[in-house]
Amino acid sequence: MSIIWTIIIGFVAGVIAKFIMPGDNEPSGFILTTILGIVGAFVATYLGQSLGWYRPGEGAGLVGAVVGAIIVLFVYGFVAGRSRRAI
């Protein structure tokens, strides 16, 4: 059930992160933004567990998932911007 909850929180976090951090290099599609939000929620969950903020089996909350999604969007924008300049 923890993974399903992380996916739901990640979906919401991806949408919120896209509104917080708009830009040219960020994904423009709803599906890609949602997937990056889910990845951000998993990043926040595992990073929080490794730092001791969350117990094993405990997922990140909405705020942590939004921060994780913003980090993933930032990295995606950096990588996408770099590959566009190379072409």
From TrEMBL:
Pfam families: Transgly_assoc (PF04226). The chain crosses the membrane at residues 27-47, 59-79. It is a multi-pass membrane protein. Its main location: membrane. GO terms for cellular component: plasma membrane. Keywords: Cell membrane, Membrane, Transmembrane, Transmembrane helix. The keyword Cytoplasm does not apply. It is found in: Cell membrane. Belongs to the UPF0410 family. PANTHER family: BSL8023 PROTEIN, UPF0410 PROTEIN YMGE. This is Transglycosylase. The lineage of its organism: Bacteria, Pseudomonadati, Pseudomonadota, Alphaproteobacteria, Hyphomicrobiales.
